[in-house]
Amino acid sequence: MSAEDFESREIDATRPSAARMYHYYLSGEAVFDVDKVFGERVFQAIPYLDVMAHHNREFLQRATKFMVAQGIRQFLDIGSGLPTVGNTHEVAGALDPASRVVYVDNDLEAVNRAHELLTEQHALDHTAIIEADLRLPDVILDHPDTRRLIDFDEPIGLLIVSVWPFVPDSDRPAELMARLRDALPTGSYVAMSHASMTEAPEELIARMAALADLYRETSDPATMRSREQFASFYEGFELVEPGIVYAADWRPEQPGDPQDPARPCNFAAVGYKG
């Protein structure tokens, strides 16, 4: 897929999207009726999926805090979704108001809502939302707002949290990740998470399989990957301790519950480009 192939994905109120459903799991707000109906079916498959979503969002927040502590002051958040409380610019800005963030999403509803939020917050001088697709990294990297806010001569914090599941193998995700990695300056970090159906109790694996089946009805079918497949996205990076773990277990700020049924099935890690 080339830059010329990119087409804006118009709002589709007849089918759920990954961005709207993630927002629903985090906030309980259904943007369209179809999202609520679909959400009820999802919760029948995995009753604690909202807890899994919160584990994922909290990983993003902790990874952002970690990057700020390492001196990162500019972030590229790809697949950012709808502007839900605790977004990257809020976390980084609370630690250093000079932090700059470029959000990226291919869902027009997410882009429109994020732009409204950033306008209300008077944040557009140091934050932007662009409509683009992870499958077209050059469109992201060369976008005027990216170039306005991101200095590619200084370390960058790249966030791709729960986005790769919506990029099938046919779109060559390893090549896409390599393009992004090559664009990052030395000293940059990348935080990623990925749903999986491995290394979990059989009952939960069956629930995750049912979830994947449900997502085939959405605008964003999901591909689950193993720990090894997820690890391949970190080629060229040095994994930061504790390496690849469940999202809830990546440098938690308070002890977690090892019996938490929402803990497995979502790998997460942070990598460093030396």
Automatic annotation (TrEMBL):
Record EC number: 2.1.1.-
Keywords noted in UniProt: Methyltransferase, Transferase
Pfam families: Methyltransf_19 (PF04672)
Superkingdom of the organism of origin: Bacteria
GO biological process, one term: methylation
GO molecular function: methyltransferase activity
Enzyme class: transferase
Keyword hit for Methyltransferase: yes
Entry annotated with the keyword Methyltransferase: yes
SUPFAM superfamilies in the record: S-adenosyl-L-methionine-dependent methyltransferases (SSF53335)
Protein name: SAM-dependent methyltransferase
Taxonomic lineage of the native organism: Bacteria, Bacillati, Actinomycetota, Actinomycetes, Mycobacteriales
